[in-house]
């Protein structure tokens, strides 16, 4: 056994190790990640990416990025670009150039001709309805198409004519001649090629026939010398067809298909088709809306590549499907950010405080650590002035027992600053509290006060030397744990109307005026927040809430 991984073992890795040990596998391990460019990548794809690139890495092999582009009507360049960006951002490098199944259209066509010549494929003129009728069902065998025994020469001619544009969309198809009575419906003479007059993003108008996924995929794998073709469980029943194709063409090699369970996450959907509906129907702003379970949405929300990779590791790879708690994903990002996120203060619901005994024109510059446990991250300058803001929720007139924040005639410490005591409440005409007059204790910077004890520590910013920002407070996109499962109602009925709450004109400490764009901040006592560079182009300073501070995942599990 050669390769050892630092990560948890998965069954695919063990399988390959065994094959190497027994001498059944020699040479490089080559895998591929094969997205269809018909949408943006989501967290489910991340699992497949981590697995395919991870296996290659573990065995010192290679992983290709190949676009499975056989449906030109649904595909486009925007998706291709986004997918490349996301794979790179996750930290993976594909071997050589990006590949496209369409690179192999000529070869695939030639293999189809080979099958026809061997009497293993035929051109069929059944309509779609007839075809499904002839296909039979799980209980009943299918019936042979009346075109099944067309002579080879006629098939060759018709297939050429299909390619040359002599027939209309859908008029003819090329089918494999396998077994209409097979218990596996995928083997009941599946379609290999169909006519589609559609311009293709890579091949333009060269083709008006396009190969089906089940025919394209094994051939593309073989053309690239893939050794292990890892795919999700729904393709298990297609494996006999995958193998049939490779056994019946004179391809360069025969990769091994291995299936694993899809990743499903609760409180969201992981299907490009459904995610596309959310975008197209305006339920979210875009594919990279931070509420989306897309890689690009998660990036904008503040998820790090490390946290996504850790999460995929935690989920593991197995044969049994299931739904993973989104709390686990949130746990992964908290763990990562807790050790790395710079700290800052931001007051979400500003309430003005005037320190009556602090000089009007004075400013002190306090030095606060960027990270309390990591001195190597340095210090930040936070101005202390006569007028400050605290959070409205950190003050009550009639404190409950054990109140840990500010109340009339009570004292709190302002994080990294002095202790102050509330002396007077100022209200506007409607009775709303608009300001607190407080006294600060000049002897309390970094030391406990003499003779009294502050209630607790709250965050704050200078009122006169801070910056204004807007905050997008994101919550789960769906209220239903499994929005897909409701047979009565559309999944969009379960959207959370409060998945985005926008807080405007919050006050952030001065250092946030030029925020880092590489890592979210921990806003003390509030959560993790990531600078939204795109949204901030308008001149506003915008932060997205990545996740709250409180972690409930794994509670009650010892
Ligand atoms: P969707 O249903 O979201 O459209 P898909 O399977 O059609 O997904 P592809 O672009 O064909 O999307 O997927 C590329 C690769 O990612 C495939 O190998 C597929 O098996 C894998 N994949 C897709 N969704 C998941 C998931 N939820 N969990 C694990 N792997 C996935
Ligand atoms: Mg697909």
From TrEMBL:
<feature type="binding site">
    <location>
        <begin position="42"/>
        <end position="48"/>
    </location>
    <ligand>
        <name>ATP</name>
    </ligand>
</feature>
<dbReference type="InterPro" id="IPR022861">
    <property type="entry name" value="Gln_tRNA_ligase_bac"/>
</dbReference>
<dbReference type="InterPro" id="IPR049437">
    <property type="entry name" value="tRNA-synt_1c_C2"/>
</dbReference>
<keyword id="KW-0963">Cytoplasm</keyword>
<feature type="domain" description="Glutamyl/glutaminyl-tRNA synthetase class Ib catalytic">
    <location>
        <begin position="28"/>
        <end position="338"/>
    </location>
</feature>
<feature type="binding site">
    <location>
        <begin position="262"/>
        <end position="263"/>
    </location>
    <ligand>
        <name>ATP</name>
    </ligand>
</feature>
<comment type="subunit">
    <text>Monomer.</text>
</comment>
<feature type="binding site">
    <location>
        <begin position="36"/>
        <end position="38"/>
    </location>
    <ligand>
        <name>ATP</name>
    </ligand>
</feature>
<feature type="domain" description="Glutamyl/glutaminyl-tRNA synthetase class Ib anti-codon binding">
    <location>
        <begin position="341"/>
        <end position="441"/>
    </location>
</feature>
<dbReference type="Pfam" id="PF20974">
    <property type="entry name" value="tRNA-synt_1c_C2"/>
</dbReference>
<dbReference type="InterPro" id="IPR020059">
    <property type="entry name" value="Glu/Gln-tRNA-synth_Ib_codon-bd"/>
</dbReference>
<dbReference type="GO" id="GO:0006424">
    <property type="term" value="P:glutamyl-tRNA aminoacylation"/>
</dbReference>
<dbReference type="Pfam" id="PF00749">
    <property type="entry name" value="tRNA-synt_1c"/>
</dbReference>
<comment type="similarity">
    <text>Belongs to the class-I aminoacyl-tRNA synthetase family.</text>
</comment>
<keyword id="KW-0067">ATP-binding</keyword>
<keyword id="KW-0030">Aminoacyl-tRNA synthetase</keyword>
<dbReference type="InterPro" id="IPR000924">
    <property type="entry name" value="Glu/Gln-tRNA-synth"/>
</dbReference>
<feature type="domain" description="tRNA synthetases class I (E and Q) anti-codon binding">
    <location>
        <begin position="457"/>
        <end position="532"/>
    </location>
</feature>
<dbReference type="GO" id="GO:0005829">
    <property type="term" value="C:cytosol"/>
</dbReference>
<keyword id="KW-0547">Nucleotide-binding</keyword>
<dbReference type="GO" id="GO:0005524">
    <property type="term" value="F:ATP binding"/>
</dbReference>
<dbReference type="InterPro" id="IPR014729">
    <property type="entry name" value="Rossmann-like_a/b/a_fold"/>
</dbReference>
<feature type="short sequence motif" description="'KMSKS' region">
    <location>
        <begin position="269"/>
        <end position="273"/>
    </location>
</feature>
<protein>
    <recommendedName>
        <fullName>Glutamine--tRNA ligase</fullName>
        <ecNumber>6.1.1.18</ecNumber>
    </recommendedName>
</protein>
<feature type="binding site">
    <location>
        <position position="68"/>
    </location>
    <ligand>
        <name>L-glutamine</name>
    </ligand>
</feature>
<feature type="binding site">
    <location>
        <position position="213"/>
    </location>
    <ligand>
        <name>L-glutamine</name>
    </ligand>
</feature>
<feature type="short sequence motif" description="'HIGH' region">
    <location>
        <begin position="35"/>
        <end position="45"/>
    </location>
</feature>
<dbReference type="Pfam" id="PF03950">
    <property type="entry name" value="tRNA-synt_1c_C"/>
</dbReference>
<keyword id="KW-0648">Protein biosynthesis</keyword>
<dbReference type="InterPro" id="IPR020058">
    <property type="entry name" value="Glu/Gln-tRNA-synth_Ib_cat-dom"/>
</dbReference>
<feature type="binding site">
    <location>
        <position position="232"/>
    </location>
    <ligand>
        <name>ATP</name>
    </ligand>
</feature>
<dbReference type="InterPro" id="IPR004514">
    <property type="entry name" value="Gln-tRNA-synth"/>
</dbReference>
<keyword id="KW-0436">Ligase</keyword>
<dbReference type="InterPro" id="IPR050132">
    <property type="entry name" value="Gln/Glu-tRNA_Ligase"/>
</dbReference>
<dbReference type="InterPro" id="IPR001412">
    <property type="entry name" value="aa-tRNA-synth_I_CS"/>
</dbReference>
<dbReference type="GO" id="GO:0004819">
    <property type="term" value="F:glutamine-tRNA ligase activity"/>
</dbReference>
<dbReference type="InterPro" id="IPR020056">
    <property type="entry name" value="Rbsml_bL25/Gln-tRNA_synth_N"/>
</dbReference>
<dbReference type="InterPro" id="IPR011035">
    <property type="entry name" value="Ribosomal_bL25/Gln-tRNA_synth"/>
</dbReference>
<dbReference type="GO" id="GO:0006425">
    <property type="term" value="P:glutaminyl-tRNA aminoacylation"/>
</dbReference>
